[in-house]
Design goal:
Structural class: alpha+beta
Number of helices: 14
Oligomer: single chain
Number of strands: 16
Strand order of the largest sheet: 2-3-4-13-11-10-5-14
Order of helices and strands: HHHHHEHHHHEEEEEHHEEHEEEEEHEEEH
Pathway: Cell wall biogenesis; peptidoglycan biosynthesis
Pfam families: Scaffold, YkuD
Keywords: Cell shape, Cell wall biogenesis/degradation, Peptidoglycan synthesis, Signal, Transferase
Distance between the termini: 49 Å
Family: Belongs to the YkuD family.
Number of domains: 3
Protein name: L,D-TPase catalytic domain-containing protein
């Protein structure tokens, strides 16, 4: 076994071209103390408690994976992992030392490289700060050291596995790689705090499959097939005061003929004053009803019994629901998905607002430019209501992941540019970095 391991080390490290002719085990101890003690202990346990196969010095290894690991770690500050370059230097030193062919050197180097990789993967797979994950499975998975190392050991191509794991998803990869290329060309290897804030938000985007992204930064909805954009449309998102939150969820059905539940500030500023001025006819013409509670079994309150002056003054709290119809603020279709903030996508009768360049105009929910096109993509057929009843739900053929995010970093002409920071989240990230 020791002879085989020595051969693996010689094959893998010789191909790296690292110049070392004699064993350095007595001259330069491996710098493991600077690695996270928790990660190093978990890696040691992995190798000690299993007949664990070699990963970096496996049979027929050509050293390309070690070179690739080094490059990934050198770039890691642009993943938000500032320790990457330090770990890259330790990986290079350990690999050079293993070239001695000494089984102890190869064994030690194997663990140094695995510990560095575990640290990196755990860093890039951390949850997005502030992201609401509707289900635990939507959070980044596979961050236990044994999961990471077992996956690496089982990979048919270690270089392919390293690339796929470090790239996360196409949106993340494009922004990070462009910023890294710019940094190398200019010599400024300190990442912009705005870049890191955007990559934090981009890391929760799926890497493959069929999904939707609502991006409040661009005010666009993008439909993805096989991990690639297939269609897009404009959206209207939340205001600065009521921003559309970061959410990762799954959409299971669409709702035809939806009710609209008026927010408090619109009841106070618009509905109550008009009810005072125009009387019950205003409520009837707009399909408004006052309810005793928010529920499917709610009863309608006689509008004559309502204190509309108090409602207009904001001292009385009313629950106002609008029936389906041409004036309904939900339009014909609503696209709900589980989340604790009661955020959803929906149609709208007011299409003129989509002509605006900046469209952060809603109360947090997302109005879509073309609900029919979105419904067709989700359902696989033209979205036709099965009847005239309110709130008619039709299930999708399969659940579709949806991510609400905020990406102001855009790649244009081979460079990273930044859109206006309408929510101030990029500025806040920069201030936090400056304060540290």
């Amino acid at each position: 076994m020791a002879t085989d391991l020595t051969k693996m080390g010689l094959i893998a490290v010789t191909a790296l071209g690292l110049a070392t002719s004699t064993s350095l085990s007595a001259q330069m101890p491996l710098a493991t103390p600077s690695l996270s003690s928790g990660s190093a202990a978990a890696v040691a346990s992995y190798y000690d408690t299993r007949l664990a196969p070699a990963i970096w010095f496996r049979a027929n290894a050509d050293g390309a994976a070690i070179s690739q690991l080094t490059a990934i770690l050198q770039r890691a500050p642009f993943d938000g992992f500032s320790e990457g370059p330090q770990l890259a230097a330790q990986v290079q030193a350990a690999a050079a030392q293993a070239r001695s062919g000494n089984p102890a050197d190869v064994k030690a180097a194997e663990r140094v490289l695995s510990t560095a990789w575990v640290r990196y993967v755990q860093a890039v797979k951390r949850p997005t700060p502030g992201m609401i994950y509707a289900y635990p499975v939507l959070q980044p998975q596979g961050t236990r050291p044994d999961q990471i190392l077992l996956t690496a050991a089982a990979a048919p191509s270690l270089t392919t596995y390293l690339a796929n794991t470090s790239n996360l998803n196409p949106v993340y990869q494009q922004i990070r790689d462009t910023a890294w290329a710019e940094a190398q060309s200019t010599g400024n290897l300190t990442p912009d705090p705005r870049l890191l804030a955007n990559l934090d938000r981009a890391r929760s985007i799926p890497s493959t499959g069929r999904f939707l992204i609502v991006d409040s930064g661009t005010q666009l909805l993008t439909l993805y097939e096989n991990g690639r954009p297939a269609d897009s449309m404009k959206v209207i998102v939340g205001t600065y005061e009521l921003p559309t939150p970061l959410i990762s969820s799954i959409m299971y059905y669409v709702t035809y003929n939806p009710y609209w539940h008026a927010p408090d500030h619109l009841v106070r500023k618009t509905i109550a004053p008009n009810a005072l001025k125009l009387g019950p006819s205003y409520l009837k013409s707009h399909g408004y009803n006052v309810l005793n509670e928010w529920s499917e079994t709610a009863t309608i309150v006689d509008p004559k019994s309502v204190d509309w002056k108090a409602a207009a003054a904001g001292t009385a709290h009313l629950l106002v629901r609008q029936d389906p119809g041409p004036l309904n603020s939900m339009g014909r279709l609503k696209f709900p998905f589980p989340n604790p903030e009661d955020i959803y996508l929906h149609d709208t009768p007011n299409k003129a607002l989509f002509a605006k360049d900046v469209r952060n105009l809603s109360n947090g929910c997302v109005r879509v430019e073309d609900a029919t096109r979105l419904g067709r993509w989700l359902l696989g057929t033209d979205p036709v209501a099965p009847g005239k009843d309110p709130e008619m739900r039709v299930h999708l053929p399969a659940g579709v992941p949806i991510v609400l995010t905020y990406i102001t970093a855009q790649v244009r002409d081979g460079k990273v540019t930044y859109l206006p920071d309408i929510y101030g989240w990029d500025k806040r990230a920069a201030q936090q970095v400056a304060a540290n």
